[in-house]
Amino acid sequence: MAETYTLILLRHGNSDWNQKNLFTGWVDVGLSEQGVGEAKRAGVLLADSGLTPDILYTSRLVRAIDTANYALAGAGRLWIDVKRSWRLNERHYGALQGKDKAQTLAEYGPEQFQTWRRSYDVPPPPIADDDEYSQLGDPRYTDLGDAVPRTECLKDVVDRMLPYWESDITVDLAAGKTVLVTAHGNSLRALVKHLDGISDEDIAELNIPTGIPLVYTLDENFVPTKPAVYLDPEAAAAGAAAVAAQGNKK
Ligand SMILES: O=C(O)[C@@H](CO)OP(=O)(O)O
Q1: Which residues form the active site (predicted)?
Q2: pTM above 0.90, yes or no
């Protein structure tokens, strides 16, 4: 039988700002109590599935780092090697960072709201450098210098994430390692778009639930050999629907 590789994607658990229904992007908010519970449950799901991650990839945001740590602790794999990159960060949400989603929907209308949230190539307005939620000058992005994003559309995320997928993540997969990538709603949408060959239009409909491992089996060209599976499909469907409806949340 041809060799296959195992890739596990995990969106961080519910965050404080998911709970408050605020656009988050690169703002480094922590997990809510619910999110901690989701992350621990992800560990149970991993353990029950018999999957044993050999290496962890995370963004540089603590909600992803904490989620991975809770999940790996639950699966008895907290000791595995870790690589972090800003290239796995959430999409930078520009001037929307810190804004209430329901208020933004009410103020700008459903079409503009959906364009900013889910269009492939229209970024929100850029954040001002002196905005309290700007990441300019944040020590964790020193390597980016002045190139720290002021806003991003999903296409920008694909463009900055794919080089890392190719230079690092696929190398570990090719070495036969089971790879866990713990990241964010939109950085994982970018990766799923690439893996599943989803069109620029159809990706608008894809939402990733918090805290439920999504398992890919890939061939030697990193192409899925079968549809990826969530370790709890029912909870994943409910979670994805809740993300899609976020603007309407009161
Ligand atoms: O606010 C954000 O950064 C993201 C993820 O929480 O939200 P959305 O699903 O609206 O893209």
Answers
A1: 12 (tele-phosphohistidine intermediate), 90 (proton donor/acceptor)
A2: yes
